[in-house]
Amino acid sequence: MKLHDLRHFYASGLIASACDAVTVQRALGHASATTTLNTYSHLWPTAEDRMRRAAEQLFADSCGLGADSGTSTSH
Question: pLDDT digits over 28-40, tens only?
């Protein structure tokens, strides 16, 4: 493992935690958000990804499987 690998790990972790491009840009010290997006844009969820998660959550909530229902969804 190289130091540069840890940098990518850090960036991908920030993106997975829903940090925006400017936040990741600043954390990595990129001169512009364009540099960040050119390297990491494939890691941000698309509108379709967000729609699927919203639909899954809507279905789970309507069936009483949501996080607030007090039931566990793990098997």
Answer: 999 999 999 999 9
Return mean pLDDT, the chain: 89
Residue 28 within any structural domain of the chain: yes
Residue 32 within a domain: yes
Token pair belonging to 47: 């509108």
Q: Is residue 75 situated within a structural domain?
A: no
Containing structural domain, residue 64: 3-69
Of the candidates 5, 3, 1, 41, the one whose C-alpha atom is nearest the C-alpha of residue 20 is 41
5, amino acid identity: D
Contact 64, 49 (CB under 8 A): no
Cα gap 47→58, rounded to integer Å: 16
